[in-house]
Sequence to fold (234 residues):
Amino acid sequence: MENSEIKKVLTTDSLRDAEVITGKSYKEDKTTESIGFMLHMENSQKKREMLESLGDTTFSNELHHYLGILGGFGFEVVLKEPFINEDKITEHLFVLWHDEYSILLTFDTHTWSNSDGSFTKNGGTVPPPSVNGGDFYYNIKFNADVKRHDFTSSGGMRDNDIWVGNHDCREAVKFHISQMADNGTFQKQWVERPFLWLLHYMDRKVEGYDSDKNNAERIAKLPQRVIDAITPKK
Fold:
């Protein structure tokens, strides 16, 4: 499958397509809104089938499957920290590292349950955890003829032409990273550290939590070689 075809499926805007069909805004027309929802459901299924056939990550990922895909792509787990969610289930914050590209990837897990948490209350089997959400962080220098916005998500350009950025880590991780690697050079030594979020969702429920403190504590737990790579040289 051509990269252009993959990107087209990943970037489809179903509501925009519905507006093209009806000539009306989905915000003002219920029929357009309904068509947009239908197209969204169809495209979500198409994306999942496409990414699964490519051996890539999907928007919803079971933890074991996700780690297997990223491990085969060159990532290693460098931090796995447990925490307890509101249903008294043990979840984990993961930090992964890609040594060749110096990419730091972090996410937390979520175990889907009945709304009342009955499987734990009644001694039922706890289902496997899934990837809840997270990002991967990097420094990259794109080739001179490349339009970087075709490949990036969030971040900014620095004076030395290095893009310091981050990207959602759930869907099509392999595709997004491969596209950047094919059109630029990931920097082994970061020139600037993007704003990192090494927190899980229960951290934010602690009254008066300090994100800077939490981030610093978790960075300190990473292997020294990772800390060195993501710490800019003065």
Observations:
- The CA atoms of residues 203 and 209 lie 7 Å apart.
- The first strand starts at residue 75 and ends at 84.
